[in-house]
Structures are given as structure tokens and as C-alpha cells.
Amino acid sequence: MDLPEIASREEFTVARKKLLESEKELSRARDRVNAERRALPMVEIEKDYVFDGPDGKLSLGDMFEGRRQLIVYHFMLQPGSHHLCPGCTMLSDNVGHLAHLHDRETTFAAVSRAPLAEITPVHQRMGWAFPWYSSEGSDFNYDFHVTLDADVVPIEYNYRTAEELEQAGLGWMLGEQRDWHGLSVFLQRKGCVYHTYSTYARGTDLLNGTFNYLDLTPLGRQGDGFFSPSREGME
Fold first, then answer.
1. Can you tell me whether residue 223 is helix, strand or coil?
2. What is the largest distance, in Å, between two alpha-carbon atoms of the chain?
3. Predicted TM-score of the model (pTM)
4. How far is residue 30's CA from residue 172's CA, in Å, rounded to a whole number?
5. Which pLDDT score is estimated for 146?
6. Cβ atoms within 10 A of the Cβ of 135, count?
């Protein structure tokens, strides 16, 4: 790739101040978007989803662990698959110390459609501290559009129908690989659970600290993986 041109300190400072204005504009835009996200209407979860965890069966409400908020990362691991998604793995490696989320009434957990017997050895080998549950036999993955199977629910990913995915050049997502990544947020209030937000594709970029560090460097992310800005149509 082309490296930046070499300049004097004075020239660098002029260019840096110009970039600073763009960074400030981005920060203000991000604050506005964050406020809009918090103001989204929420939907009550009426279906009784059942998950498998190390201590047995549990409900979506149980996954909150007594806290008010729950962030679920939809980890791409489908039953019988020996492929560990590099993007999901890298993102999971970047999950920080959970105490800081817990201190703010928020629980973080991963959910996959693979059975717990297939999740547990991966979880232990990778040494991740967050809980990781199986949604095997549940509609959870389908209802939150991270498992694409038209025989179960109409296909939708990142708020695009199958036809819209095709039109965006993403028809390859409709092949044998059915499980994709995403993130969903829930709120628990007066004994009820509400869905407040979901995001997919590059919407999970903010969780990947490595990429955010690399975005500060001249070489950038150095790849065209699933989370890369060069992956067309995945915004």
C-alpha cells in the first residue's frame, strides 16, 4: 500500500489540525447516533426461549444474572461445524474486563446454535471469561436473524431481505453457511424482557478494540476480512 508522504513538522501540524476538525465532527455525529439508539422503541419478548449453560437450562431472563441490561453477541458456531470464525474469535478476544460492565448493571454473553458439548471445549481452550450459551433447539437465532433458513423464518440479515442481499452482491451469504454474526441488546424491567437493539456486519466494529487501534495507524487493518472497510456491501 502507499505510505504517507514525508513532510516537515509544520506541514504535519497543518494537516493534523484539519483532520482534527473531521474527528470532532465524527465525535459529535457519534454522540447524536448514540442518543438516537437509546431512544429506539423496545419490543417485549413474549416467546419463552430456552438455552443450555454449564449449570443447566436457563431462560433469556436468567442470562441477565440479576442485572438490568444484557448484551448478547451472536457467535457464528453452527452445529457440527469445526470452523471457528476468525472474526468472531478476534472480537471475543477483545472483550474487556467484565467487572466494568457489571458495575453498570450490564451483562455480556455469547450465544451460538451449536450444542453446549461443542461450545464448552472451545470456550475453555480460548480462556474467555464471558458466559457462552447454546440456543440449540430454540428459535432464538432465527428470530434474531443470525441463522438464515427460509424454511424456518423469512431470510433477513442486517435488515435486508434475501432479494436485497442478492442486489447488494451478498448472495454468497445464502449458501451452506447459515449462521452469521451480530449483536442484540435487551433490557429487563418489572419481570419483563425487552429487545432494544440489534446490529450486524460492520455494526459490531466498535466491539473490536484491535481494529480501532489499527484504524489509528498508517497501515490500517491490513486485511480484507469480514470486518474490513474494503468488504463491499457489509456496512
1. coil
2. 64
3. 0.92
4. 31
5. 97
6. 25
Low-confidence residues of the chain, pLDDT below 70?
1, 224-235
pLDDT value at residue 77: 95
Residue-level pLDDT at 209: 93
**Nine-digit cell string for 194:** 425487552
**Under 8 Å CB-to-CB from 224, ≥6 apart: which residues?**
230, 231
Torsion region of 231: left, alpha or beta (phi above 0 gives left; psi -120 to 50 gives alpha) = beta
Phi, psi for 151 (deg, rounded to 5)? -75, -15
**Angle at 141 (CA atoms; ends 135, 142), nearest 5 degrees:** 135
Q: Which residue has the cell 468488504?
A: 231
d(CA 203, CA 182): 8
- Per-residue confidence (pLDDT) for residue 121, from 0 to 100: 96
Cβ pair 175, 164 in contact under 8 A: no
User: Residue 144 is inside which H or E element, if any?
Assistant: none
Report yes or no: 193 and 181 within 8 Å, Cβ to Cβ. Answer: no
CA distance 77 to 134: 10
